[in-house]
Amino acid sequence: MFETTKKLGDKEKDYELLIKQLTALTDGELDEIAILSNASALLNQFLTEVNWVGFYLWKEDGLVLGPFQGLPACIRIPYGKGVCGTAVKEGKTQRVADVHQFPGHIACDSASNSEIVVPVFVNGEVYGVLDIDSPIKNRFDEVDELYIEKFVKTLEQYL
Q1: Residue pair 116/97 in contact by the 8 Å Cβ criterion
Q2: Is the pTM of this model over 0.85?
Q3: What does the pLDDT profile of the chain (159 residues) look like in tens digits?
Q4: Is residue 3 part of a domain?
Q5: Which of 32, 76, 120, 121 lies 20 to 30 angstroms, CA to CA, from 157?
Q6: What is the domain-level CATH number for residue 53?
Q7: Residue 101: CB partners within 8 Å, gap ≥ 6?
Q8: Could you tell me how far CA 132 lies from the centroid of its own chain?
Q9: In total, how many domains does the chain have?
């Protein structure tokens, strides 16, 4: 586990180790719920200053709560709504320094102040999103975004 105050190089090395751990945990496993459960637990253990880590899965015409670590969460998020729905609509990562300034933010946990959401794709189709919340404003930086996206790219290979 690393502290957010570590030097940049250390943070990058820690993320590289995290991705190797993900690969070791998922290699050879076929059950997607087990894979997503371990991925959320691994991130929750690794990241500091986060209060929710988990997945929303694309079903029919919206996102449905999947494996996660944290307090109970919103069960369904409509396409294009909130940070998660926007990530699906735009097909790209949403890194939000202050969720209270995000138009249409869905407050599942009032303690959350910043958020990063990375869309997950399988065979070119939306599979869902990885959602990470923090009680700290501006918790996620460019390095977090880069490596969380790499984490998701690695994960996609096993889904």
Answers
A1: no
A2: yes
A3: 444 444 455 899 999 999 999 999 999 999 999 999 999 999 999 999 999 999 999 998 999 999 999 999 999 999 999 999 999 999 999 999 999 888 777 777 778 999 999 999 999 999 999 999 999 999 999 999 999 999 999 999 999
A4: no
A5: 76
A6: 3.30.450.40
A7: none
A8: 4
A9: 1
DSSP, residue by residue, 88-122: HHHTS-EEES-GGGSTT---S-TT--EEEEEEEEE
Which residues span the domain enclosing 60?
A: 8-156
- DSSP secondary structure code for residue 26 in this structure: H
Quick one: tokens of 26? 């998922």
Nearest to 38 by CA among 50, 57, 24, 48: 24
In a domain, 135, yes or no: yes
6, 14 Cβ separation under 8 angstroms: yes
In a domain, 54, yes or no: yes
What amino acid is encoded at 127 in this protein?
Y
